[in-house]
Amino acid sequence: MNKIHQSAIVDPRAELDSSVEVGPYSIIGPNVRIGAGTVVGPHVVIEGHTTIGENNRFFQFCSIGAAPQDKKWKGEPTRLEIGNDNTVREFVTFNLGTAQDEGVTRLGNDNWISAYVHLAHDCQVGSHTIFSNNAQLAGHVHVGDHAILSGYAGVHQFCKIGAHAFIGMYTSLTQDVPPFVLVSGNPAGARGVNIEGLKRRGFTRAQIDGVRAAYKHIYRSNLTLEEAKAALAQEEANMPEAAGEIRAMRDFLGAATRGIVR
C-alpha cells in the first residue's frame, strides 16, 4: 500500500490490489474494489458499489460510482462495473445503475474515454470504444464494441448504438444506430457505412461489400424495416463471406426499440 499518497483517503474496507496507485487528495469509498496495475490520479473520487479491473488509468478530477441522477433511485445497492485497460480522462463522470434496470452500469475493456464524458445510470458500453471530449450518454444507453462517439455527441436515454458505428461531432441522437453505420447531424441522419473504420480494423473487401449491400437495403431501397430484414436474410445466403456482418445488422433491426436513424 506504499503507492497510496499520504493525502489520499482510502476507506479501510475498500479492496485494492497492492500494485494500485492512488494520487494526492483522492477518495476511495468502502465498497470499492480495484484490480492490479490500476492508477488513480489526483483529486479522483471513487465511491458506491464499484468494481474496477486491471490496468486502468483515471486522470484527475473524475467522479466514479456516484449516485444516479435519477429521482427514482432510493439508495438501493446498485453497481458500477469497469473492465480492464481503460483510459479515463479528466472530469469524467460514471454513475451507478438503478433498480429499474439491471442495477448496474458497465464499461468493458480497452476503452478510451476523453475529458468531460458522462455515462449515466444503467449504460452498457462494450470494449474498444472511443468517446471524444464531452460525449454524453443519458440513462440506459447501450453502445457496442468499437463504436466511436465524436465530440459533443449527445445520446437520448434507451438508445442503442451498434458495434463499429460512428457518431459525428455535435450529433443529437434520439434513435438507434445499426452496426457499421455512420450518422451525424441534429437531428441525426445516416450518412453511409463507416468504411474507413472497418478497413482500419482489418475487415476484408467481401465483408465491407456485404455491409454496404445491407446498408443499401435499409437506407436506399424504400423498404420498411420488416422488408429490409427479409432482404438482409437473403443477402446472408448470397454473400456467405459477409454473412456474420449482415446477420448482425439484421439482428439489430429486430432488437431496436426506438426505431433507427434513417
Automatic annotation (TrEMBL):
Q: In which pathway does it act?
A: Glycolipid biosynthesis; lipid IV(A) biosynthesis; lipid IV(A) from (3R)-3-hydroxytetradecanoyl-[acyl-carrier-protein] and UDP-N-acetyl-alpha-D-glucosamine: step 1/6
Subcellular location field:
Cytoplasm
Q: Give the matching InterPro entries.
A: Acetyltransf_C, Acetyltransf_C_sf, Hexapep, Lipid_A_LpxA, Trimer_LpxA-like_sf
Is the keyword Acyltransferase assigned to this protein? yes
Q: Where's it mainly located?
A: cytoplasm
> What catalytic reaction does the record list?
a (3R)-hydroxyacyl-[ACP] + UDP-N-acetyl-alpha-D-glucosamine = a UDP-3-O-[(3R)-3-hydroxyacyl]-N-acetyl-alpha-D-glucosamine + holo-[ACP]
Occurrences of domain UDP N-acetylglucosamine O-acyltransferase C-terminal (ranges): 176-261
Q: Per the UniProt record, which residue ranges are transmembrane?
A: none
Q: Which UniProt keywords apply?
A: Acyltransferase, Cytoplasm, Lipid A biosynthesis, Lipid biosynthesis, Lipid metabolism, Repeat, Transferase
Which EC number applies? 2.3.1.129
For molecular function, the Gene Ontology terms on record are: acyl-[acyl-carrier-protein]-UDP-N-acetylglucosamine O-acyltransferase activity
* Keyword Membrane belongs to the record: no
Q: Which CDD domains match?
A: LbH_UDP-GlcNAc_AT
Which HAMAP family does UniProt cross-reference here? LpxA
Q: State the family named in the UniProt similarity comment for this chain.
A: Belongs to the transferase hexapeptide repeat family. LpxA subfamily.
Q: Say what the protein does.
A: Involved in the biosynthesis of lipid A, a phosphorylated glycolipid that anchors the lipopolysaccharide to the outer membrane of the cell.
Q: How does it assemble?
A: Homotrimer.
Name of the featured protein: Acyl-[acyl-carrier-protein]--UDP-N-acetylglucosamine O-acyltransferase
